[in-house]
Structures are given as C-alpha cells and as structure tokens.
Amino acid sequence: MKTFEIKDLLKRDLLVVEAKDEKIAWAIIFQKYGAKAVSEYTLLGKADEIREEDSRELVQCINVGTTNKYVASVNFFNNVNNRYYNTATESLLSAVETKVFWENPLGTKRNAEKIARFKSKIAGDNLIELWHKAQSRTFDRNRSIIFVKN
User: Fold this and answer.
1) 84 in Cβ contact with 120 (< 8 Å)
2) What pLDDT score was predicted for residue 65?
3) What pLDDT, in 10s, does the model give residues 100-150?
4) CA dihedral sign of residues 14, 20, 23, 28
5) Which residues pair with 15 in a beta bridge?
6) 64: Cβ–Cβ under 8 A, 6 or more apart, which residues?
7) Residues near 138 by Cβ (< 8 Å), separated by ≥ 6?
8) DSSP assignment of 70-93
9) Cα distance between residue 85 and residue 89, in whole Å
C-alpha cells in the first residue's frame, strides 16, 4: 500500500494513503510512521467524501468582487501559478492532484515500454524511469484516504 505526504502546499500538510478501508489506512500509518504519527493526523476521507467545511480550513480564500474564490497554488517547473475555484473542496482536490495522480499520466507500463523501444537507449531508459516515478505517485482514487496533519 502506498502513502504520499503533501507538504508546504496548503495551510496544513496532508497524507494520502491507499488502502481498502480506514482501519487498514490507520494500520499503514502506524507501521510506516510509528505510533506518534497516529495521533498527529485526522481523517479527512476519500476524495469524494471531503466536506466543504474541512476544505475551507486548508485552502486560502480571497474576495473577488462580491464572491469568494478559493486558491490552489500549483507549482509547474518551479513556476508557481494560482488557480481559483468556486469551492474550497475543488481547490483542495486540485492541489492534491498536482502531487498525486489518479491515473499514470504516461499510461500503462507496457505502453511506455513500447514507446521506449523506438527511442535511443538513454531516452528509452529515462522514459521507463519517469514511468516508475509517476507510478509511485499514482493512487487508486476509490481506495485513497486523505488525512490532515494536526
């Protein structure tokens, strides 16, 4: 089971754990990070279960004219761009999706290997390495449970 820590992106750090259910997710946190870590996190839920009230505590809100917008800072190649959303939950999930993937953006391993065969040895090896790196950050959205650090 995978875990991924999201630091310095939101008002508080998050931990994404891929597990069948909440009980197993807590066991993974205990096993990987120790007993102290269990008391350092609070359950937010799966991506489609996160409440708007909880999201508001994690993202920046700005007033744009007569409405509030929620900001997600996105870092692309060391360029920070702000994106604005109508709900805090949209903003939160957008920020999470800049760090973890619900699907590998490079497709299947078999597809990456096919493409690598047509490239030079170095470029092909780099593509396979990139695929593995992306796969380590690819989580099953239906089995991913998000925790917030207290």
Assistant:
1) no
2) 81
3) 999 998 899 998 888 888 888 778 788 889 999 999 999 999 999 999 999
4) negative
5) 5, 147
6) 84
7) 100, 101, 102, 103, 104
8) EEEEEEETTEEEEEEESSHHHHHH
9) 9
Rounded to two decimals, the pTM is 0.85
Structural tokens at position 44: 């937010």
Residue 73 has pLDDT above 80, yes or no: no
Q: Say what the pLDDT of residue 80 is.
A: 64
DSSP summary character for residue 101: B
- 13-50: pLDDT as tens digits: 999 999 999 999 999 999 999 999 999 999 999 999 99
Taking the C-alpha atoms of residue 51 and residue 27, their distance in angstroms, rounded to an integer, is: 24
CA 123 to chain centre: 27
Q: What is the token pair recorded at 80?
A: 């920070």
The helix/strand/coil state of 49 is helix
> Could you tell me the two tokens for 8?
């310095």
Q: Strands, DSSP E only, in the chain?
A: 3-6, 14-18, 41-46, 60-64, 67-76, 79-85, 144-149
User: Domains of the chain: which residue ranges?
Assistant: 3-149
Contact, 94 vs 83, CB < 8 A?
yes
Token couple for 147: 């925790």
